[in-house]
Amino acid sequence: MTSPPTAELHLHIEGTIEPAAVIEMGARNGVGLPVESLEELEAKYAFTDLQSFLDLHYANLTVLRTEQDFFELATGYLDRARVANVRRAEIFFDPQTHLGNGVPIEAVMAGLTGALDESERTHGISTDLIMCFLRDRGAAAADEMLTAILPFRDRIIGVGLDSTEIGFPPELFADVYARAAAEDLHLVAHAGEEGGPETVIAALDVLHVGRVDHGIRSIEDPALVRRLVEDQVPLTVCPLSNVALRAVDTLADHPLPALLDAGVLVTVNSDDPPYFGGYVDANYAALHTGLGMDVEALERLALNSFDAAFIDGARRAAWQQEVRTHFAAHRG
Ligand SMILES: [Zn+2]
């Protein structure tokens, strides 16, 4: 079955860098890497938890130096997302990482927007950017980052919160989220991936997010599940990521089907695809063949992705009609 038309709402552009690009950009930019070969680098793609992934992720990102690097990074994602039938992508980026590596914000923005501004014409994919704060850099650094991005306010649609979850609860970021809200930015945050359901509740109550990234541990709190259903708060779930980082033991243990059955507005996404075993099409395929979810459930998930997207009603209706047509053809 071809993957359904979908909106991808949880995708870190830095997390789409392929191992071969790490080697190539490292050589091009004269950035020394702790590995000698592509094979040696690829052997490191095995993780025990979120932090073990982040350690490799941040080491790889030291190769991104120039506007051209960021242009190629975004173009590489678009090439692959087109194959995965992505119609709309709301893409996370982490400028604090690059500023910390000595890359000017202007180069990051020019490279990313140079690729994404043309994405509808070049790839048939509507795109926007969501800037994420790195929670492990703390609240003061987040506040400085928000100030630094405001000259580019019209190039982003929202802010998010990612990186190490344990030890950096949502409460730390209440003030910077209030500032972002005053700028009319959409608000999202990672929560309930490694942290418990209380982190999802804090993201809702303290940060006032409109969408929760991951949020899978909400399943542990029935009252929270009822609230997510009642308020139709979307969860951007990344099944293969959760297996790769041991947030769940196996795909069979994944709470996505139970959350969907309960009526939560669950969506399917790829997070950092080359690290976790596949793009969004591979995630849909895993739910179908690995978890046995039927086509009705997959159709619901694809429709949900457009309900959860920050788009206008006309585009939502058009894309959801594409989803229905796709599944009608599949049922034959
Ligand atoms: Zn993520």
Automatic annotation (TrEMBL):
SUPFAM superfamilies: Metallo-dependent hydrolases (SSF51556). It is an enzyme of class 3 (hydrolase). The record marks 214 as: Important for catalytic activity. It catalyses: adenine + H2O + H(+) = hypoxanthine + NH4(+). Residues 5-324 form the Adenosine deaminase domain. Pfam families: A_deaminase (PF00962). Binds 1 zinc ion per subunit. Its cofactor is Zn(2+). One of its GO terms (molecular function) is adenine deaminase activity. InterPro entries: A_deaminase_dom (IPR001365), ADE (IPR028892), Ado/ade_deaminase (IPR006330), Metal_Hydrolase (IPR032466). The active site is at 193 (proton donor). Its EC number is 3.5.4.2. Zn(2+) binds at residues 10, 12, 190, 271. Substrate binds at residue 272. GO terms for cellular component: cytosol. GO terms for biological process: adenine catabolic process; hypoxanthine salvage; nucleotide metabolic process. Keywords: Hydrolase, Metal-binding, Nucleotide metabolism, Zinc. Catalyzes the hydrolytic deamination of adenine to hypoxanthine. Plays an important role in the purine salvage pathway and in nitrogen catabolism. Belongs to the metallo-dependent hydrolases superfamily. Adenosine and AMP deaminases family. Adenine deaminase type 2 subfamily. This is Adenine deaminase.
